[in-house]
Design brief:
Chains A, B: InterPro entries: Asparaginase_II, Beta-lactam/transpept-like. Chains A, B: Keywords: Hydrolase. Chains A, B: Pfam families: Asparaginase_II. The structure is a homodimer. The first copy, chain A, is an alpha+beta fold. Chain A has one domain (about 5-330): Beta-lactamase. Chain A contains 13 helices and twelve strands. Chain A has helices spanning about 50-60, 60-65, 70-75, 85-95, 115-120, 135-145, 160-175, 195-210, 215-230, 230-235, 240-245, 285-300, 305-310; strands at about 5-10, 15-25, 30-35, 40-45, 185, 190-195, 195, 255-260, 260-265, 270-280, 315-320, 325-330. In chain A, the strands form three sheets. In chain A, strands 1, 2, 3, 8, 9, 10, 11 and 12 form an eight-stranded antiparallel β-sheet that branches. The first copy, chain A, has a two-stranded antiparallel sheet with strand order 4-7. In chain A, a hairpin with a 5-residue loop joins strand 11 and strand 12. Chain A starts with a strand and ends in a 5-residue tail after the last strand. The interface between A and B is large, with 54 and 54 residues.
């Protein structure tokens, strides 16, 4: 049974390409508000669950110990663009525990945004591990290990207390064990565990609503969401989809992208969580769908704001001379 | 009825993402040698039919008039990477008719390959229309117009003789009229017409085999294929998939990528043509599938060479530290 087409790309009068996928919009009691496709098939959430992996940073007391502010917490949940401010802040976070980039185990890569990458080239720079989009998350991991007196080396491995804590948080929030058969290695070398979209949506709904979760864990999750919503640039970067989504309704939307066409997020005021996956992994489709799912979540309570996000789910496509050639649009199945 | 999954991307033991699509492998009489999915649905071929659009460059006598060599002809069929040699040659081709880049109507864009783009940034350069991946094709269009005494301005428009000739060649080779309802505007501003994959495969099979096509047209198509196979760098660029596919069996494989997950090609010795489309437009999938389709075409005649291409249809995927995280692989439906 295949997932429905959720995003179409047109040229002229025809659909040129299409993207299938699934999404779940869940409340804190686990009730499905809206969904499409197979939300029970295991999906690697990738970076979309960085906030969940950062909860130990708060719960262990490391964030307070090292005086992390909202921008630091946002970076700890980030897939940042490797712009100078991201790099500076990641280095500064490591320095709070007397560490430098040598401690990182995420690997180095050129910034994914072409203009950021060209700017670095113009300045004669080459990327180091601080430019890795996950460097803030890894800085958070290292600060937690330092606070707990744990050895820094090997913090990215599945058996290190840092990763064991992150995995335990996710298992608690989804109410399911994550076994080795659903374990993969992420781009930044930490373990990543596949689980149903329904589960990830529930995890974020529980944090947002405070239902089905220990109060101190809900507070930690909400503190991280507030930090990301207050400082979305640190979590993403110039022109990024997460930035645009969160800036469209400041303080109301938490939305985080993950590689291979994933998004997770929450509407804290409404106590709702969502998770989505584009089957083929396309970011252009996951970004459009995220806007549409947020619009669906807002429809009853705030029709005007819902319209703002519905408009972000459709975009004109233009060629190299600026001529409109078609559009990308979300096509949700009729209820 | 949905297209089958033809390409899978794995992480750990799971399939993380998957790509659906279709392909047709056809002989010069129109007989299907192999296929999968819906090969009758209209598909925009995009750059995959540049060779067909370049046939008038030969047939009108323009190529001979301006003394175009194989590298020039290859560039006239190219989606090149905008490397210095591509840019230099496109300018040189225009100069043969006393034209410069001001005559181009393709628009300018940064090179799509990140390292080529960074190299330009390091040199303090910004792209002009010569860097546009289609500039060689457009140079060919302008040379044809110049040879025919046609006005250069507006050569990219659907009613200009240049585009009318290109459309007529495609209609002749697929045996079907291309109407305005299947017309879109391409990235480089020329018209692009959607037709079934089966038709595009047949077009290339006819050129390769000489069957069902006027001899002088077959010769023109074969001359262009020989030029591209002899000089694949001009048609593509450093590290590009088309380069690798054609260098794996010099003179035996013509393969051309098109935007939104398309490939067209031919095996001239075997008189076969192929066309494929990945539903979601992903290039990582179209490149893997192209290798698999070529392997399928070679299986009977040359098992060893077929194995070379089958190996190119699978690739280990590694993370930022070089750790293998999974693979991308083609999964053709069982016959």
């Amino acid at each position: 049974m295949e997932n429905p087409v959720l995003v179409e790309v047109t040229r002229g009068q025809l659909v040129e390409s299409s993207h299938r996928g699934a999404f779940a919009l869940i409340d804190g009691d686990g009730k499905t508000i809206a969904s499409a496709g197979d939300v029970d098939r295991p999906v690697f959430p990738r970076s979309a669950v960085k906030l969940l992996q950062a909860i130990p940073l708060i719960e262990t007391g490391a964030a307070a110990r090292f005086g992390l502010d909202d921008k630091d917490l946002s970076l700890a949940c980030a897939s940042h663009s490797g712009e100078p401010e991201h790099v500076r802040r990641a280095a500064a976070m490591l320095a709070k525990a007397g560490l430098d980039m040598e401690a990182l185990e995420c690997g180095a890569h050129w910034p994914g945004e072409a203009d950021v990458s060209r700017d670095m080239a113009r300045r004669g720079e080459t990327p180091c591990q601080l430019h890795n989009n996950c460097s803030g998350k890894h800085a958070g991991f290292l600060l937690t290990a330092a606070h707990r007196g744990e050895e820094a080396a090997g913090y990215s491995g599945p058996n290190h207390p840092v990763q064991v804590r992150a995995k335990a948080v996710i298992e608690d929030l989804i109410g399911r064990s994550l076994n080795v058969d659903v374990c993969g290695t992420d781009g930044c070398s930490i373990p990543t565990y596949a689980a149903p979209l329904r589960d990830f949506a529930l995890a974020f709904a529980r944090l947002a609503s405070g239902r089905g979760v220990e109060p101190q864990r809900a507070e930690a999750g909400q503190a991280l969401m507030r930090a990301c919503m207050a400082e979305p640039f640190e979590m993403s970067g110039t022109g990024r989809a997460c930035l645009k989504l969160m800036q469209a309704a400041p303080g109301k939307i938490f939305a985080k992208t993950g590689a291979e066409g994933v998004f997770c997020g929450a509407l804290p005021d409404l106590g709702l969580g969502f998770a989505l996956k584009i089957d083929d992994g396309a970011t252009r489709a996951s970004e459009a769908l995220a806007a549409a799912v947020i619009a669906a979540a807002l429809k009853k309570q705030d029709a005007s704001l819902a319209e703002t996000f519905a408009a972000m789910a459709r975009k004109d496509l233009r060629n190299w001379r600026g001529t409109r050639t078609g559009e990308i649009r979300v096509t949700l199945p009729k209820d």
